[in-house]
Specification:
Shape: globular
Strand content: 15-25%
Radius of gyration: 17 Å
Distance between the termini: 45 Å
Helix content: 25-40%
Order of helices and strands: EHEHEHEHHEHEHH
Bound molecules: adenosine-5'-triphosphate, magnesium ion
Structural class: alpha/beta
Number of strands: 6
Length: 203
């Protein structure tokens, strides 16, 4: 374990950022005593198609986190051209900041995907996973999966927080159907979506 600051990383497509992301980050900050959380929107994702342009996703993240002093926007992945890989991002962060202990904050869906990512064992070496429950996954299944990852070297902390069923996919569908999203995203993000006419033509 490194001796310096404890920094959380919230990676995501953030298409758009929503209250579930913020709740996750706040729970991680409180329960893991993180000094800072970096919100790191993806650039061009090789995993998702038809994603809104990076600048607009970045703008929404900036609006959503402005009021939280320990949350910061990181453009490390957004500014990279081509695919970005978490293992490489963590490698360059830990090389530049060798004293920092990084915590990679994820919802349960990612716990079930991370083995398919590039070089997962390097991810486990460079960051502690901080995992939250999420909609379809019960805690037993999560722990079982977690134990398998631990056998491959992962260090995992589970967050104790209420399940939130908010997703960006659902928000995009709601906007397209002209349903309200004001309880799902910060008001600044709702305004931005309206102003920029985002998601009305999602297919
Ligand atoms: P999409 O529906 O487009 O996949 P999303 O809501 O899953 O979007 P992402 O940007 O893909 O949002 O997620 C970024 C991170 O936040 C992931 O680790 C994901 O598991 C986590 N996350 C998102 N929403 C929630 C939620 N409601 N509860 C717990 N974790 C969440
Ligand atoms: Mg997702």
């Amino acid at each position: 374990m490194r001796s310096g600051k404890k920094i959380g990383i919230m990676g995501g497509t953030f298409n758009p950022i929503h209250n579930g992301h913020l709740q996750l980050a706040m729970a991680a900050q409180d329960q893991v005593s993180l000094d800072q959380i970096l919100f790191m929107p993806s650039g061009n994702s090789y995993m998702k198609r038809n994603v809104l342009e990076t600048q607009k996703r970045v703008d929404m993240v900036a609006l959503a986190i402005a009021r939280y002093p320990n949350f910061e926007l990181s453009l490390v992945e957004a500014q990279k051209s081509g695919n970005t890989y978490t293992c490489e991002t963590l490698k360059s962060l830990t090389t530049s900041n060798p004293d920092v202990q990084y915590y990679f904050i994820i919802g349960a869906d990612i716990l079930f995907q991370i083995e398919q990512w590039r070089n997962p064992e390097q991810i486990y070496q460079l960051a502690v996973l901080v995992c939250a429950v999420r909609d379809d996954y019960d805690f037993d299944a999560i722990q079982k999966k977690g134990n398998l990852l631990k056998a491959s070297g992962a260090d995992i902390v589970y967050l104790n927080m209420p399940k939130s069923d908010i997703s960006s996919t659902d928000i995009r569908a709601k906007v397209k159907s002209s349903l309200p999203i004001s309880k799902l995203v910060p008001s600044e993000v709702a305004h931005y979506i309206e102003q920029e006419h985002l998601y009305y033509e999602e297919d």
